[in-house]
Amino acid sequence: xxxxxxEETSGARAIRYGNLAVAIHxxxxxxxxxxxxxxxxxxxxxxxxxxxxELFTAHKTVGVVILLLALTRLAVRLIDAxxxxxxxxxxxxxxxxxxxxxxxxxxxxxxxVTGLAAVSKGANGGMxxxxxxxxxxxxxxxxxGGAHEVLAFAMIGLLGLHILAALKNQFVTGGPVAGRMxxxxxxxxx
Length: 190
Ligand code: HEM
Description:
mainly alpha, Fumarate Reductase Cytochrome B subunit, binds protoporphyrin IX containing FE, two-stranded antiparallel sheet
């Protein structure tokens, strides 16, 4: 089956993601970095403390927003596909980029889902409380919750590589790829 992100090319000039994709990307990035902080922060407070409860509610809330944004982004991709890579961007690098993005999407969905499974035992009528007195359904499979922490470290590792690749492409090799995601600059260089 042809893989349009990998096989198609667009000539020398970089083409950019659409505005909605760019907005969702940077909003998700800010929320995920906040979420990583929250995930480590609430454990510093004793169980039953008000601070811990507050940070944990924030962690659940941000997780649900990340999940909804990832699903929105996947839906937007159906009507506004990612731009094809420039013709001279090596095929192996395209494959690495495409598969790392797919893995990031998997993690943006799997992390909240396993988090909602982890809180399912203490759920109130199948729901968990979020910020502002709102409620969200849990995933009633407690065993899935065990994967949450491992997936969190996978996300941190992959994100580190994603950020390094973007910075290297823009500032070291001056390549065509980072410019697909404003405010990185589009270049004509290979
Ligand atoms: C923190 C959470 C982040 C996540 C989950 C994430 C995820 C993604 C995903 C899935 C894509 C593919 C585009 C799409 O379908 O929307 C992408 C593209 C991109 N991201 Fe991120 N990103 C994050 C943070 C960052 C940061 C901090 C930078 C820059 C330092 C960055 C730079 C880029 C660039 C330049 C592209 C375009 C690369 C290409 O199309 O091959 N991202 N990102």
